[in-house]
Design a protein that fits this description.
By secondary structure, this protein is mainly alpha-helical. The chain contains 13 helices and 4 strands. The protein has 3 domains: 45 residues, no CATH class; 34 residues, no CATH class; 112 residues, Orthogonal Bundle (Cytochrome Bc1 Complex, Chain D, domain 2), CATH 1.10.760.10. A hairpin with a 2-residue loop joins strand 1 and strand 2. The radius of gyration is 42 Å and the shape is elongated. About 13% of the residues have low confidence. The structure holds heme C. The site of heme C has 21 residues, from helix 8 and helix 11.
Length: 263
């Protein structure tokens, strides 16, 4: 079959074209069933197709190039349809990427208080923020300070505690905890030494509580140091206290000689 005297779309192209454009005007011969790709009609199309040129046969011109050069009106119609279809899809994507939304903390005209950032609904707790473990989050149980740790203390807990203590506490309490840190030497109020009896006997929860709520002129460290690290610091303070009051009897027997032999 020809259009404008030129060979038109291939068999599949025709089937497509017929279903898209003016299907009623196109004479399909022999009549095609819907969805059937024509094999009966093939000889008819074959006849209409011109001999492939020598250049085409040798692959110098690819068939699509040939088709481009032979774009018939019907083909153009199909192309326009396809381009319109694609641009509609692209248009949708841009719209989705460009949806109206609030920048953090911008003004809103929708809510009464004009804040886009919404406060928690009263009486609710954000997922993962239920602080039901009183021991872990307050250092207390039934309102009384505890002298135990909410999780087992390991060497890595102590190492973490040492690191955090040196960062957050030593500027005032100094690295050993005697309360002579650099800020104190420059005039800040001197805290009590962690090695005095009162603080050696103070329960572990006391240190946690001071870090969480502050004490006298000392600000709290609840924002800077999260609960797990606060407990690690408590463990390290306990190790510091032990370090200043240990006797040889506290050292395991097999390691005593090693200590004594050191200059
Ligand atoms: C900016 C200096 C400063 C820093 C940093 C600081 N403290 Fe203090 N801390 C003080 C001062 C000053 C006091 C005494 C406050 C008072 O008596 O008014 C104190 C008191 C304390 C007490 C109570 C002592 C008592 O007499 O009962 C504890 C426990 C304590 N600090 C622990 C810590 C820990 C743990 C950190 C690290 C997370 C820390 N502090 C960081 C200055 C500091």
């Amino acid at each position: 079959m020809k259009l404008n005297g030129k060979p038109a779309l291939g068999v599949n192209g025709w089937a497509l074209f017929a279903s898209y454009a003016n299907a009623s005007k196109v004479l399909l011969y022999p009549p095609f069933e819907k969805g059937e790709i024509i094999s009966k009609g093939l000889p008819l199309f074959e006849k209409a197709r011109p001999e492939r040129s020598r250049r085409e046969r040798q692959g110098e011109i690819c068939p699509s190039q040939l088709q481009n050069s032979l774009l018939s009106r019907a083909n153009r119609k199909l192309c326009v349809l396809l381009v319109l279809g694609f641009s509609a899809v692209i248009g949708c994507q841009q719209k989705m990427a460009d949806q109206p939304r609030y920048e953090p903390l911008t003004r809103s005209t929708l809510f009464g208080d004009e804040r886009a950032a919404r406060p928690l609904v009263e009486g609710t707790v954000a997922r993962g923020q239920l602080r039901s473990d009183e021991h872990f989050y307050t250092g207390k149980q039934g309102g009384k300070l505890v002298d135990t740790f909410p999780f087992p203390v390991t060497p890595s807990t102590l190492a973490r505690g040492e690191e955090r203590f040196n960062i957050y506490c030593s500027p005032c309490h100094d690295r050993v905890g005697t309360g002579q840190g650099m800020i104190v030497r420059r005039g800040y109020r001197a805290p009590a030494s962690f090695h005095m009896d009162r603080l050696r006997q103070a329960p572990a929860g006391y240190f946690f509580d001071v870090m969480t709520n502050g004490f006298g002129v000392m600000p709290d460290y609840a924002q800077q140091v999260h609960p797990e690290d606060r407990w690690a610091i408590v463990a390290y303070i306990r190790a510091l206290q032990l370090s200043q009051h240990a006797t040889l009897a506290d050292v395991p027997e097999d390691q005593r000689r090693q200590l004594e032999s050191k200059p």
